[in-house]
Amino acid sequence: MASRSLHSILDEIRALASDEEFRGTLTDLGVDRQHVADRVRPSEIHRLCRRSSCLFPSPCRHLHVDHGPLIELYRQARRVPGVRHVFVASGIRHDLAHADRRNGEAYLRELVTHHVSGHLKVAPEHVSESVLRVMRKPPLQEFDRFRAEFERFSREAGKEQYLVPYFISSHPGCTLKDAAELHDYLRKHNWKPQQVQDFMPPHDPGHRYVL
Ligand code: SF4
Known about the structure:
Layout: H1 6-17, E1 25-26, E2 36-38, H2 42-48, E3 63-65, H3 68-79, E4 85-86, H4 94-99, H5 104-114, E5 119-125, H6 129-135, H7 140-157, E6 162-167, H8 176-188
Parallel strand pairs: 1-4, 5-6
Antiparallel strand pairs: 2-3
Helix pairs in contact: 1-3, 3-5, 5-7
The structure holds iron/sulfur cluster.
């Protein structure tokens, strides 16, 4: 995993903010992976790592997640002269936030309070337990927990803002029952999909696809 130092990112923000064309808004500070580190040396991963995912079915004990530096980056970026808004437009990893027992909640509060331009992208991917397992994604409870946190922090900040969840339809392992479960979940939360991304295996001549 690669990351940039706090100073390097702040230098770039200062350079940007000093440009006469800059209007005060950083549209996407992104989700730099500086809060994630692997305790196993890169040269040894091939030999020592037997897992297919660092986070599924539970966070690997060698994975060190600390959002402290990211919180500090957000705070310092907001203080750069000329900067009025710092937004995060990239999708965030709610499972990584929850894997950080020390600073995960503080990070979500900081993000939701100061860095959402109205909508925040997140990718629960699906709601069915069996499909999420095939995807190697965290269970739905994890997303529901995040949704509740997002609503609470938005309310406490006095802001009306919304989640933009990303779901995949027809992923391998997804049955009609799973699709109906996803449909019911969307309806229950009054989410009306604006776009649909469908998973279509290309080498199945006997299969018909309807969108
Ligand atoms: S699963 Fe664990 S050991 Fe393997 S790459 Fe991820 S953090 Fe490192």
